Structure formats: structure tokens, C-alpha cells
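Design a sequence for this backbone.
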């Protein structure tokens, strides 16, 4: 099989990570006639209910990784923090899409901001912080209010501390627990939007309409389409995303999170995978982000992602799952549940896409 031959139905898509994103990728793969093999260290993952095959093993189990690679035609992933040694082993055996560079950049907030600003895109002012002395210097440059974030392994607002003034420096450093960090200027944005963008193996790019995101306690709460953006802002956002994907020679779907400010867009972060703020595409487009990603990594042509409805996606977090019987009675509300048994606080249990009519 050469790099450019589309994988035929019946081929096996390997997916690293068996959470809800791996689950929805597996469903999309099955719809196109592919089989999926999910690799996940935790027992009984959400993707296990729908994948053709599941391997339960850790990312340092070299035998399990090699067996997994041997059983698949291409490897993709649902999260960015895959250990480097596992990637080295897998990459020697099968293509990994999206590529390593996209992963390396998105795993490290400083590498990510250096890459984005190198492309001429704007980010919040930032400075690396490796200890108390660095933080004092960074505070002189960036000032307050600001946010100290761990450079690696942060998600859903974890590993972040907001500084209202210099007096918060000590508490902020303590919250990093010795991890390398980055201080970011606090952006007084008017709202947050994201672009879900895809790039195919042939270099073509297709972007979904930007969605407007509202977070609660650092976790995405809703994504609303259309976002409050002018026509020219909409095309700027999409062009900006396309530049990022092309610069990375990217294959697959990426989430690009933007702050909207009077001075223009600032890129908050990029995620080299399908993204929670793209879940609305499941009910607002003919080809959703999950199918688009599978198409891209399988070398198929990208699908038409034009939006045919106004949609509000709401995440069902923790006890929100108790509202399912009531939501199930609503008209035009498409439920997507992840099959997780235990509803812990902050845990994403499912989401609902409400089609806005009239
Ligand atoms: P992150 O994990 O970096 O995506 O941050 C989670 C959320 O915190 C973002 O979606 C914003 O709502 C908020 N946030 C992060 N960085 C900044 C910043 N520099 N200024 C203002 N708000 C921020």
C-alpha cells in the first residue's frame, strides 16, 4: 500500500485512546466499512463498546504495541499526550496520522506558541517559567492579571492558576508542583470561538464554520453555531486555521481555539485531533468531524462539511446525565452518550446537539 492509495473498506484503523473521542471515531470508521482497533490502558473504555477490537495494555508494553501496529493499516489517536517511546516504536511499523510534529508541538505550550508566532499568528503574551526567579522576571514582562499554566499535560483548565496580582506568585508556583510552566497575559476577550479544520493526504483543506464556545469551571459547556462573527472574521478564522495545518503538513482533523478581541484573533491552543467543540457537526453537517478525520487518515477525499442548520451543543458533565430522560423528550435534540457507568464531577458523560429551528 503506498502513501497515496486510499485504504479500501475492510481496512483496520488503529486508534490510540478509548475515551469518547475514540468511541465516536470507531462509529464513523464502521460507517465507512472500516474496522477499528483501539489501544487503551484503562479497562472497559467507552470505545470498547463499539470498536471491532480492543487492546488493554500500557503505553510501555512494547509487545502489545507491536502486535497492535501489526494488526492495523494506519494509526491515529484521540489525545495528544502519548509517550514518545511508544510513538517511536509505532511509527517504525505503520503510518501515524496526524504526524509527530503536530503532536510534539501541541504537547508543549511553549513549543506551540513559538510555532504559532513563527507563522505570524498572534497569541497571548507569554514567558517560560522554570522556578521562582523566572516567575518574577516573567511578571515584570507580562504583568497581572495573568495565568500560569503547566507547559505539558494540561487539559480542561487543569494545571492552571490565575494571578490577580504579584501577591499570588507563591501560590501560583505551588500549584505547578515543580512542573515547567508558562505565564500568559490574561486576555480580555469578547468571546471564544474554534475552527474545526481538516486536511487530506492530497493537501486539500476543509474547515467547518467556526463555533462559539462557553466554558464553565475550565470545561467546555456549550458550542453555538453560528458564532458571533462577521463574514470577514469568519473567513479570517478559516484561513488562519488552514495556514496552521498546511505548515504542519497535517493529515486529519484539528481543533483551533481562538480568542476574539478588538485587535483580532489570538490563538489560544491547537489540538491535533477531533475536538469537543466540533461535536455539533454530528447533527449540523452531512459529514461530521469524526468521519472527516477517518476519511483523511484513510487517504480518502475530504467530505463536504458545510453547515445546514443552526446548532447548540451542550456537554453533559457529571450529574447532568440525570437530565437525559427529560432531554430525550425534547424535539430536535440529538443525544450522544458515552456509555460511562460512573458520573463523577467534571466527567464528560455525553452531549446533546439541539437543532435550532424557526
Ligand atoms: P486552556 O486549557 O489553555 O484552553 O484554557 C482553558 C480556558 O481558560 C480557555 O478556554 C479560556 O476560557 C481560559 N483562558 C486560558 N488562557 C487564557 C488567557 N490567556 N486569557 C484569558 N482566558 C484564558
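Sequence:
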Amino acid at each position: 500500500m503506498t502513501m497515496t492509495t486510499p485504504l479500501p473498506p475492510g481496512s483496520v484503523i488503529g486508534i490510540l485512546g478509548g475515551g469518547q473521542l475514540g468511541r465516536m471515531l470507531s462509529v464513523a470508521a464502521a460507517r465507512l466499512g472500516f474496522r477499528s482497533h483501539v489501544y487503551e490502558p484503562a479497562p472497559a473504555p467507552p470505545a470498547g463498546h463499539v470498536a471491532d477490537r480492543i487492546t488493554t495494555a500500557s503505553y510501555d508494553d512494547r509487545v502489545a504495541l507491536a502486535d497492535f501496529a501489526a494488526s492495523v493499516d494506519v494509526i491515529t489517536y484521540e489525545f495528544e499526550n502519548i509517550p514518545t517511546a511508544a510513538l517511536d516504536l509505532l511509527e517504525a511499523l505503520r503510518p501515524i496520522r496526524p504526524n509527530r510534529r503536530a503532536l510534539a508541538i501541541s504537547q508543549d505550550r511553549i513549543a506551540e506558541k513559538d510555532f504559532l508566532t513563527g507563522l505570524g499568528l498572534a497569541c497571548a503574551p507569554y514567558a517560560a517559567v522554570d522556578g521562582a526567579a523566572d516567575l518574577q522576571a516573567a511578571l515584570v514582562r507580562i504583568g497581572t492579571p495573568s495565568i500560569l499554566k503547566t507547559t505539558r499535560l494540561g487539559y480542561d483548565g487543569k494545571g492552571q492558576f490565575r494571578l490577580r496580582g504579584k501577591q499570588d506568585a507563591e501560590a501560583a508556583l505551588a500549584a505547578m508542583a515543580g512542573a515547567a510552566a508558562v505565564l500568559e497575559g490574561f486576555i480580555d476577550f469578547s468571546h471564544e470561538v474554534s475552527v474545526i479544520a481538516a486536511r487530506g493526504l492530497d493537501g486539500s483543506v476543509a474547515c467547518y464554520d467556526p463555533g462559539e464556545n462557553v466554558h464553565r469551571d475550565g470545561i467546555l459547556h456549550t458550542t453555538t453555531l453560528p458564532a458571533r462573527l462577521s463574514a470577514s472574521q469568519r473567513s479570517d478564522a478559516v484561513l488562519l486555521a488552514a495556514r496552521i495545518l498546511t505548515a504542519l503538513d497535517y493529515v486529519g482533523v484539528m481543533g483551533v481555539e481562538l480568542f476574539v478581541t478588538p485587535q483580532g484573533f489570538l490563538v489560544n491552543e491547537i489540538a491535533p485531533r477531533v475536538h469537543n467543540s466540533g461535536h455539533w457537526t454530528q447533527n449540523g453537517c452531512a459529514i461530521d468531524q469524526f468521519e472527516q478525520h477517518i476519511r483523511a487518515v484513510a487517504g480518502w477525499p475530504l467530505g463536504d462539511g458545510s453547515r445546514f442548520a443552526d446548532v447548540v451543543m451542550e456537554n453533559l458533565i457529571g450529574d447532568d446525565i440525570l437530565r437525559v430522560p427529560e432531554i430525550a423528550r425534547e424535539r430536535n435534540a440529538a443525544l450522544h452518550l458515552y456509555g460511562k457507568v460512573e458520573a463523577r464531577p467534571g466527567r464528560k458523560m455525553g452531549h446533546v446537539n439541539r437543532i435550532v429551528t424557526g
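The chain has eleven helices and 17 strands.
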